[in-house]
């Protein structure tokens, strides 16, 4: 795993706090996210499908040194 991300959606107007949308995992050979699909969970494997804020919370230490 290269990165672990928190996915947040800032829906609506009026300065509402961001809403947790899911968690994402960036691997060397792909991407995987588990997201809130309202009445069901969604699995996302294409990072380009996400239109949310992505915040890296954990990065592979080996990646930083390269």
Write the layout of secondary structure elements.
Blueprint (H helix, E strand, L loop, with lengths): L2 E7 L9 E9 L2 E7 L4 E4 L8 E7 L1 H4 L2
Antiparallel strand pairs: 1-2, 1-5, 2-3, 3-4
Characteristic key phrases:
mainly beta; 5-stranded antiparallel beta sheet
Nutshell version of this structure?
The chain is mostly beta strands. Helix content is 6%, strand content 52%.
Describe the structure.
The chain has one helix spanning 61-64; strands at residues 3-9, 19-27, 30-36, 41-44, 53-59. The chain starts with a strand and ends with a helix. A 5-stranded antiparallel sheet has the order 4-3-2-1-5. The mean pLDDT is 87. A hairpin with a 4-residue loop joins strand 3 and strand 4 (41-44). The protein contains 1 helix and 5 strands. 11% of the residues are buried. It is mostly beta strands and 66 residues long. The chain is globular, with a radius of gyration of 13 Å.
């Amino acid at each position: 795993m290269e990165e672990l991300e928190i996915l947040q959606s800032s829906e609506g107007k009026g300065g509402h706090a961001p809403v947790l949308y899911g968690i994402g995992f960036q691997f060397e050979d792909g991407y995987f996210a588990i997201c809130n699909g309202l009445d069901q969970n969604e699995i996302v494997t294409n990072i380009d499908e996400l239109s949310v804020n992505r915040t890296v919370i954990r990065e592979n230490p080996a990646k930083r040194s390269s």
